[in-house]
């Protein structure tokens, strides 16, 4: 009788340890996904791709989807070049980006320390200026 109780207790302990280890692994994986920016970005990309698949119509061909993808990539690169431009980097501070209704040309103005953006549409240019300005002091808590 003592042997049966002893084996029963040992079996319950092993089952309990196995369940605790399994729960810990699942929890650590969940927190690893939440705390890992790369995993979050991958999950966001997958969700966006799935959402795009739902929006895609039967009439759109593969080449049209590829063209849209290239347009989005070109626009994304131009936005990164404009927003994160560092005048001290030695890279050119200008470029053209094709858009549906014309062209966008961006250029860094060294004298005024501003990024100038021009949009060409309907045979004319319109201008947008992004002033880097003076950064305020950070808040103190």
Topology at a glance:
Layout: H1 2-35, H2 37-55, H3 62-83, E1 94-99, E2 102-109, E3 114-121, E4 124-131
Antiparallel strand pairs: 1-2, 2-3, 3-4
What does it look like?
This protein is of the alpha+beta class. It folds into 2 domains: 7-57; 73-134. The protein has helices at 2-35, 37-55, 62-83; strands at 94-99, 102-109, 114-121, 124-131. The protein is elongated and about 95 Å long.
Annotation keywords:
141 residues, alpha+beta, 4 strands
Brief account:
This protein is of the alpha+beta class. It is built from three helices and four strands, in the order αααββββ. The chain has two domains: 51 residues; 62 residues.
Class derived from helix and strand content: alpha+beta
Largest sheet: 4 strands, antiparallel
What fraction, in percent, of the residue positions are helical?
Answer: 40-55%
Please give the number of β-strands: 4
Strand order of the largest sheet: 1-2-3-4
Summed up, the helix count is 3
Distance between the termini: 67 Å
How would you spell out the order of helices and strands?
A: HHHEEEE
Taking all Cα atoms into account, the compactness measure Rg is 28 Å
Low-confidence stretches: 24-30
Mass-distribution shape? elongated
Mean pLDDT: 75
Number of domains: 2
Strand content: 15-25%
């Amino acid at each position: 009788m003592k042997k049966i109780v002893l084996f029963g207790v040992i079996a319950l302990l092993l089952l309990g340890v196995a369940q605790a280890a399994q729960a810990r692994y699942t929890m650590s994986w969940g927190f690893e996904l939440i705390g890992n920016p790369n995993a979050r970005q991958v999950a966001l990309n997958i969700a966006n791709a799935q959402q795009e698949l739902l929006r895609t119509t039967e009439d759109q061909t593969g080449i049209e989807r590829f063209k849209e993808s290239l347009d989005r990539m070109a626009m994304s690169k131009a936005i990164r070049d404009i927003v994160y431009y560092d005048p001290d980097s030695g890279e050119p501070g200008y470029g053209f980006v094709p858009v549906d209704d014309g062209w966008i040309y961006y250029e860094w103005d060294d004298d005024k320390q501003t990024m100038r953006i021009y949009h060409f549409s309907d045979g004319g240019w319109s201008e947008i200026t992004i002033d880097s300005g003076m950064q305020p002091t950070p808040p103190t808590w």
